[in-house]
Design goal:
The chain is an alpha+beta fold. Among the domains are: about 55 residues, no CATH class; about 70 residues, Nuclear Transport Factor 2, Chain: A, CATH 3.10.450. Helices cover about 50% and strands about 15% of the residues. It has 5 helices and 4 strands. Strand 1 and strand 2 form a beta hairpin. Helix 1 packs antiparallel against helix 4. The chain is elongated, with a radius of gyration of 26 Å.
Length: about 190
């Protein structure tokens, strides 16, 4: 079967129409994620502490990490007695070292994020917690369940095919005798 230019253009157009909708979706949610990441509090903390050296190291006494965790767990238990703990994150660097405790619901699922001072054990903030932010789940299609993830894989494949067919069309119709910038843009 000969793959002529008309064949490639036809399939490129058929793939391009639905892929455009998904490309718009992915680009808008991707920009939203990038802006959130760039201007977010987590990024500000990473930038502020990037060149600092942690006061806690692998040879530190166990109390250097266990005491802050114990204080934080006690503070969270006082606020939400018996709450299941999904995960704990320690931030030793910076002016305000913290222990972040993510709790779940007794019936399963995520519940709250507690940020606790590693020095005092005082709860600094409490906010709703989900394992992945909504915009991340929206970007990946996961917000729509397994079907959304499958659709995301398909639209990614469609965009790859669209890129390949577009490049094939470009290479087939370019003018081989052109010189200078006209070799690329005619």
């Amino acid at each position: 079967m000969a793959f002529n230019t008309a064949f490639w253009r036809k399939w490129h157009r058929w793939i391009a129409f639905p892929a455009t909708l998904f490309l718009l979706w992915v680009s808008i949610t991707g920009v939203t994620l990038a802006v959130t990441e760039f201007f977010g509090a987590d990024e500000a903390l990473r930038e502020a502490t990037r060149d600092q050296v942690s006061p806690t190291n692998a040879t530190s006494a166990p109390a250097a990490w266990s005491a802050p965790v114990s204080r934080a767990v006690a503070a969270v238990n006082a606020k939400a007695p018996g709450a299941p703990i999904d995960k704990i994150e320690l931030q030793f660097k910076g002016e305000n070292p913290t222990v972040t405790i993510f709790t779940g619901k007794a019936t399963g699922g995520e519940d709250s994020k507690y940020v606790v001072s590693a020095r005092t054990g005082a709860i600094e903030s409490v906010e709703a917690y989900t394992d992945k932010p909504f915009v991340v789940r929206l970007h990946s299609g996961e917000a729509f369940g397994d079907g959304g993830l499958i659709l995301a894989m398909l639209w990614g494949l469609a965009l790859a095919v669209l890129s390949i067919t577009g490049l094939t069309i470009y290479l087939r119709i370019r003018r081989p005798g052109s010189t200078g910038i006209k070799r690329i843009f005619w």
